[in-house]
Amino acid sequence: MEELLAEFVGVLLGDGSIGIYGCRARGRLKKHYRVKITLNSEDDKDYADYLVDLIRRVFAINPIIRKRPGERALDIFIFNRSVVRRLLRMGLKRAPKWNRASVPKKFLVHRLASHVLRGYLDTDGCITIANNNGIRYPRIEMKISPYQMQGQLVSALKSLGFEPRVYAIGRGKVRVVLPGMKNLEKWHRNIGFSNKKNSMRAESFMSRRKIAGGGLPTQTRIAGSNF
After folding, report:
1. 56 by DSSP, 3-state: which?
2. CATH of domain 2-207
3. How big is the CA angle at 35 (ends 23 and 118), to the nearest 5 degrees?
4. Per-residue DSSP letter, 218
5. How confident is the model at residue 127 (pLDDT cuts 50, 70, 90)?
6. 32 torsion bin: left (phi>0), alpha (psi -120 to 50), beta (else)
7. Among positive and negative, which fits the CA dihedral 70, 47, 101, 153?
8. Between the N and C ends of the chain, which has fewer C-beta atoms within 10 Å?
9. pLDDT at residue 197 tops 60
């Protein structure tokens, strides 16, 4: 169960948020406890079902799914004070995550870090095809907002045997890149995907043995980065 909780932590750090809000009901001001995960309503349909089941298994509650009218987005909600308090006690931060987000220390151990990374990539990362002077190769990418989480996720990747490349993309954000077929195969083997969109894309790339690993297109790498 700890592995599933670690994956859920990665999901929240990716496209999730935790909030406690004041709301008025029957003339009284009450606290409103909420966890929200936002997904693409078309590309992530299967993944939404997976997360609903994960939440049921980890927290023994039924989340609420709402499609946003006129948008390609859906939200998974947990309205539960005990769940919110549990997540905050673990070390997760309330919204906004910008300049505040960090991975709770207990999930940085080798056994759980891979599950955090899986949840993060499945919500806030992607697998793309890069073209470098005619050489095409797969590339795993994750964008990470500023604060402690950047270094934590990069260190977690290194502890799992990856050599991530980190690039500044403005406003303190970075793009973490794992280029080439070997990295894709290692991720598939050691971390895996729960989002069907990503697993199908990875398997499609790996089945094309003509795609070779290689260098990166020119980007602005962080000068003097400690990552």
Report:
1. helix
2. 3.10.28.10
3. 165
4. P
5. very high
6. beta
7. negative
8. N
9. yes
